[in-house]
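The records we work with from here on pair a chain with its fold. These numbers are not coordinates but entries in a learned vocabulary of local backbone shapes. To see the layout at work, look at the sequence and tokens printed below:
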Amino acid sequence: MREVDLDVFAAELARGAFTIDVREPDEYAAGHVPGVRTAPLSELGSHLAALPADRPVYVICASGNRSAWAAEHLEAVGFHAVSVAGGTSGWARTGRPVVRGSGVRAA
């Protein structure tokens, strides 16, 4: 499992990186990175079929702990997963945009 910092993630996101947020729905709705799909950690198994097998799946959470666990799990089942260190909290702290609402589900 690879981990990237927020600057690398921002560049990859600008290039269209497929990204899931593994926080719970209420956390995601309270504020998430624009364009990032929701796939709660508690439901991750039900989202596997919707994840791309041919390119990296970036995984973000609040701080990086849940995303690291989820990325390891995804790697174990054959995905190329990348955890985003610092998470959504770090993203917001550095002045990057955060949107509110239910957004888009991964599956």
